[in-house]
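Quick one: structure for this chain?
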Amino acid sequence: MFPQNSPTGESLDSETYPLGEKSEQSDSGKALALVALSHTLVEHRLYTAMLSAHKETPGNNSFTARHLMTLTGIRSTSTVRRGLEGLVVKHSVDKNGHRNGETKRDQAHAYCVYLPHEVIARRKAVGGTALTPYAHESNGGHGSHSFDRAITRIADNAMLSRREAQVALCCVEGLTNAEIGKRLSVSEQTVKFHLRHIFVKFSVKRRAELISRLLT
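Got it. Here's what it folds into:
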């Protein structure tokens, strides 16, 4: 559900990385939160950089890996390219051919970015939801409608960090702390740390209460 790229060497703080726009709970903020939930840290760093650049210059919706390295400060070309390929698979961006002016050696593809509500529409158009096919197929044994409700409630909670949102969604799937840690590439102690904060933010005392709050 949440594929993790190999370590990048960049200082990406997975503990406090925001789920979405916490300053307001607008429709666009909720859409961005849903999209963010499906991205890895690198993918979402690239995605938000593209969104910001496009917002500042609406006519500019074409980005190369080299351009994005400058925008994000990520120095690894392979990391940026893996992130972009992940975004293409998740329908968040599209390749739109080779960029004029780039050298043959670079073989530079240009990528266009979609707004959050467009990403969600594109995913639904291929038979998924805001997260599928990135949500785990089992969904913890819960029906898709209930699982979608849980996703929305997690996205609506402006206090959650992105990692806390991922841990909460894994709980809904019925994963143990060890299984969550393995999926998110963090230690079991880190999972417990996030759970303590999640319980406080949802005003619950145990995992069963959290799952019930999210699904009903």
